[in-house]
Amino acid sequence: MLAGGTTVGQPIARRPSITLRRTEVKMSKLAGAVFAIVVGGIGGACFYFLGLPLPWMMGSMILCIAAALSRLPISSPRIIRPPFAVILGVTLGSTFNYEVITAAAHWGSVFVAMIIFTVISTTLSYVYLRRIGKYDAPTAYYASVPGGIYDLTALGGEAGGDERRIALAQSTRIVLLVLFVPLLFRSIYGLSGGAVAPLSILSENWLVDVGLLVAAGVLGWPLARLIRLPNPPLMGPLLLSAAIHVGGLTQAAPPAVLVAAAQIVIGASIGGQFIGTAPGLVLSSMRHALVLFAPVMIVCALIAWPTAALSSVDLPIVILALAPGGMSEMSLIALALHAEVAVVSANQMLRMLCAHLFASTIFRRLVPRAANNP
Fold first, then answer.
1. pLDDT for position 193
2. Per-residue pLDDT tens for 274-303?
3. With contact defined as beta carbons under 8 Å apart, do 221 and 82 qualify?
4. What is the chain's mean pLDDT, rounded?
5. Does the pLDDT at position 2 exceed 70?
6. Phi-psi sector, 196: left (phi>0), alpha (psi -120 to 50), beta
7. Domain boundaries, the chain
């Protein structure tokens, strides 16, 4: 007789394996992510039929935020976002061509303006979140630096910051930009922002076009991982697609339906940041984001105005290039507004690279000096 009443030779009951449990958790998250995309698709369709700007991303984002705060069984579609980021990367890369590259000589002032604005807006946000928001130093810093939710949240966590607050601060800032920038541009400049562009342009050798686009996505992602670029599913295909289009190998772009699907997934991913968060924390983050939104965008406009004159780039494009949102979101706004996407993507890409390479170094060298003086 063994302990617990089991006789010798009698099979011992085994607990479910850890692998099985992990598989069940993954399947549950996958089901929740699929449900989130369904919810996002419904929201996008509603916004589309209402004629609202940037409908597929904005509608998906708003309805998924509502679902998250209502405790509906959705999960963040982050686990299935990468393939759609690949589609977006190939699409953004298709906006580059030889004429765009030759015009890039005039973008120098826009790049400089982006760096200046990023320093000012980060400093302004950091001081506010430290003094008024009472955030600790790493949380305030990484919540203030624009350049990608996931990378900065991870870096902030490694530095000892509150990952939930960082993710919420980054998300609420992007939510406000996605909500208000297209509406402002529609009212001031008459830009519609309702269509999904660009449409697929296939030549007679359409199989070659499709093959090149697929190759840009399939090869760009692992190559970007190999050279350690941030957000490899987006940046690798974007760069490879841009090279293919600048080289004149094709003028094709992914079809509008795939671009709309990518917008739905990205909108649902933003909404997914609010899953499992206490309403009080969401309201607090939204309040801080609203307080900061006006002064930050005023600074953005003040810097963009002379920059547009110096660079010969239209003012709305410069504002999108400087705006402290994510690369995907700002580029999609430019795409929907039929703006010069290449300028916006290039600037947002540069900022993402700078944040990836230098944000942690700047925090270690500069922020600790002020950390003891909240």
1. 55
2. 888 888 888 999 999 999 999 999 999 999
3. yes
4. 85
5. no
6. beta
7. 80-371
Residues 6+ apart with CB under 8 A from 254: 87, 90, 91, 94, 200, 213
Question: In this structure, are residues 164 and 156 in contact, taking their beta carbons and an 8 Å threshold?
Answer: no
Instruction: pLDDT band for 151, please (50, 70, 90 cuts).
Output: confident
Residue 139 CA to residue 113 CA, distance in Å, equals 26
pLDDT of residue 200: 57
CA distance 130 to 169: 13
Tokens of 128: 């506010």
Contact 62, 77 (CB under 8 A): no
Amino acid at position 38, single letter: V
Give the separation between CA 170 and CA 151, rounded to whole angstroms: 11
DSSP character for 340? -
Nearest C-alpha neighbor of 334 from the set 160, 109, 88, 50: 88
| Tokens found for residue 286 | 């939204």
Structure token pair of residue 178: 């996605």
Rg from Cα positions in the chain:
22
Question: What's the token pair of residue 177?
Answer: 């930009």
What gap in Å lies between CA 163 and CA 145, rounded to an integer? 14
Residue 373, token pair as written in the block? 């003086």
> Are the C-beta atoms of 74 and 272 separated by less than 8 Å?
yes
In whole angstroms, give the CA distance from residue 181 to residue 333: 8
Q: Both tokens of residue 105?
A: 């000589």
CB atoms within 10 A of CB 276: 11
Q: Which one-letter amino acid corresponds to residue 372?
A: N
| Residue 116 backbone class (left: φ over 0; alpha: ψ -120 to 50; beta: rest) | alpha
Residue pair 202/329 in contact (Cβ under 8 Å)? The answer is no
Q: Let me know the angle formed at the C-alpha of 279 by 276 and 281, rounded to the nearest 5 degrees.
A: 90
- Give the number of other CB atoms < 10 A from CB of residue 76: 22
pLDDT tens column, 222-258? 999 999 888 899 999 999 999 999 998 988 889 889 9
pTM of the full predicted structure? 0.82
